[in-house]
Amino acid sequence: MTSAQVFRGLREVPKYAFLTIVAAVSIGPLYFMAVSATNTSNDVLASRMLPGSSLIQNWQTLLGQQDVYAAMYHSTVNAVATTVLALVVSSIAGYGFEVYHSRNKDRLMWVLMLAMMIPFAATMIPLFRLFANFGLINSVWAVVLPAIATPLLILMFRQSARSFPHEIIEAARMDGLGELSIFFRMFVPTMRPTYAAAAVITFMAAWNNFLWPKVILVNADYQTMPMLISNFTGGYVIDYGALMLAVLIASLPTIVIFFVLQRSFVAGFTGVVK
Amino acid sequence: MTTPAALTELGDTKKSMKRPKGPSPKLSPAARRRSLTGWAFLLPAAALIGIMMFWPMFQALILSFKTGRGTNLAFADPLWFNYTRMLHDEVFIQTIKTTMLYLVIQVPIMLISALVLANILNNPRLRFKGFWRTAIFLPAAISLVSYSLVFRTIFATDGLVNDWLLALHLIDGPVNWLGQPGTARMVIILGLLWRWTGYNMIFYLAGLQNIDPTTIEAAKIDGAGPLRTFFSVTIPQLKPMILLTVIMSINGTLQMFDESFNLTQGGPANTSMTMSHYLYKVSFQNNPNFGYGAALSYVILIMVAILAAIQMKVGDKRD
Amino acid sequence: MKILRAGAAVAATAAFTLGLAACSSGGSGDATGGSSESSGSGGNTLTVWAWDPTFNIYAMQEAEKVYQQDHPDFKLDIQEMTWDDIQTKMTTIAQAQQYDQLPDIFLVQNNAFQKNAINYPDLFAPLTDSGIDFTEFPAGVAAYSTIDGVNYGVPFDSGTAVNAMRTDILSQAGYTIDDFTDVSWDDYITMGKDILDKTGYPLLSGQAGSSDMIMMMLQSAGASLFDDQGNPTIVDNAALEASINVYSEMVKDGIFTEVNSWDEYINSLVNGNVASTINGIWISGSLQSATDQSGDWAVTDLPALSGIDGATHYSANGGSSWAISSNADYALASDFLKSTFAGSTDLYDTILPGAGAVANWLPAGDSTVYSQPVDFFGGQAIYADVLKFAAQVPSNNTGVYYYEARDAVSAAITKIMGGEDMQTALQEAQDTVEFAMS
User: Fold this and answer.
1) What is the pLDDT of residues B48-87, one digit of tens each?
2) Which of A65, A132, A156, C130 could join B5 via S-S bond, C-beta 3.0 to 4.6 A?
3) DSSP string of B129-184?
């Protein structure tokens, strides 16, 4: 190693120190959460920062009070269904907005944007009445349908469609491919990173969604993980060790999805920015 | 903050309008058919948004002209009664001030930190890039219910933060973080920063990766220092992304509910309560006054729309 | 023009939706997904909403067993959801007029009963014809769920307030539990300071910004935040001012430690940071989780406000009642409640030791279970004592705007503790409540 390299290495120290601090602050609370899942209720309240030996005990307490398997199942079904349908519906719309672009479609986009600017609490009752009229209370549809088409996702796909070369579309048309086939055979495979990014965001939002599922899933048999956690805090006596374990379990799927998709995730946004 | 990614778009409608692809006065049959196909592609999403969002919004608009508790609702006299009522609502005015405070303090700090972090992580020579990226993004993956619980525990009077500050002799006695107006708001701001900085950083990282590295090399050859390069080469190219994150953050902050609801319950003395939290309270926790709640929601909608429009005007100026 | 067209597209979509919604509701008036589940398919299943598996849900499960002795086919579908969720669901269902989504029986916080019953008259079924004898409940407790003389709820958990004290800490300072029995708040504070000096332990802890303590003091004097006509009486309310004075004096003297959250409050008890607590009897469940303190606790009545008319040593905090929904299998639900929570000594004999659920149903108090000594409380028969307290709790006029008033008073207390003049702060609170009522 030459002295120049050492010097450069030294100059890097503040940068790594800074990143270490930021990373520590980011992970700190998560570490506390994970460690608390292995501690007793009293240790959690006393902010014990070392792993304990109560993990199994907490797991048994949790299972004794809550049907974790059912909640994980419902959360998974809801989040996966939402993500898959949202990607299909919103990407085809985003593609439509861009590839068959017109001023009226631009204006429609503007109008659709307004839909995300109103607080959800205001539209909850009319939405509830709507689903009741369709006979869909307690159904997966009631959770999934409002989350499928979001102005956010449509815009995201519209932006990425902009970087999709129009020559490909023209060439495909020459070859006699139908418009839908062009979308599915040409656009979808090319835009995989964008889909990965959109999947992470949508899955996260669907998995963590709380207010609407808790209202529309009137029957508690269909409860999701965030509802389970909320229920756990409802009693007069709360076991914080078991609670933190529930919180940890509820966080794992979103963390895993991010780990799996993060490379494509960053790359996927690159397409969006263009 | 569950909101929009691609507002970049809004900044450059002009660009898209310049392209020759728009409808020309006389359309060939093939082009006509394609235009119809285009509308067909939009239809499922537009219909869903219409049914799931605009229909309830329309109902809420009608509701905002009604008064009464519970199901005894009747049209108000005058119709805009609920809208004038809020002018005398001390609690609502307080929540506007609080929400604006969050907006003015938290959004700039968050976005600037995200920008700085993204710039550091974008350095090709940086080691353990994946680790830093994951660590900083991870808070965004945690559910709001969970993170509120964790933060409440950490900021308890006998919690971790006090333990550490006491050990470091930075404070003399435990601070009642969530029990005083100033510190309670600070904890909410810290919570927002913790949770959303990494999320925004990812957007900037994506934007930075899209910048042609030769433009930066060129600036260096011209003798520009790293700071100068950052401000005169990097920032301008990131502008669509910055605009996007700014508008997302405005929308998210003005509609913020969970932090106020779960972390501080709006206290002490309503000083940390946000507008959306108050709206929820008026509708679901107090005597249900849905007409007034709906009127409040439309005021929030208008505030978001105005601020977003201003951002777009300002952000769009130099293009 | 084009904007118009874009608008028209949206309008068309909306109209399409409207049509769909209208068709659907017109086609089948009661088409719903969940009604068959919630109203009990076989005619012998009842759906119940409640929130605490170790407390009210446990009690319901025991009630199910009691009722099954005579009705072997009977079943309960008990659904756990927090009170907050029950309130949100009730409001949504009532506001959307989808009453068929309601369960048969649900648990309602006593303080919220009036509000829900008056705003949504179609939510609860009146219990007039149920055959339940409401004179067998303390009048003050039954009053929460009585509107215009009609009973809508069967009281479950009374929330009768107790003063639970650590006798080991008291004796370090030379006191016994008897020194704290039938005392005034003035005496209480004097002794509290002495104990703080001698042992370093504050007497009490509680959530900053919560008005629980003040509301208990207020109710102990039979006072409330509303007059009989339902007008707020936050200003010129001698009992309220006296309560706030006592509270702020205790905080200033260090006898009362303010903490941030419910978790911290429980923590202060379990970790033995305070010498006592004043709360609803349900707090005994949390206390008993600190097994190392077994035998160190005792229970007595509350201090009384000095110089206030009607001041007593008895109060309540929390408490809940079972309501039958308008969607219920009324005959079955009312018979079930009548035979269990309003008629079964066996039930109360089971749930008392099992969950510390103290009966409101007065005949249950005659049972020998209530006079059993409790080891955790040094062999004191605390439940018999609590029943004696319960019968003397003054009724509390909650009214429809109870939550608004309580929130406003909480905010006022925070401001007063922060140095604001009491009259100004209370006037602001009164204005806030009057605004909410306007």
Assistant:
1) 999 999 999 999 999 999 998 877 788 988 889 999 999 9
2) A156
3) HHHHHHHHHGGGGS-HHHHHHHHHHHTSTTSHHHHHHHHTTS-SS---GGGSHHHH
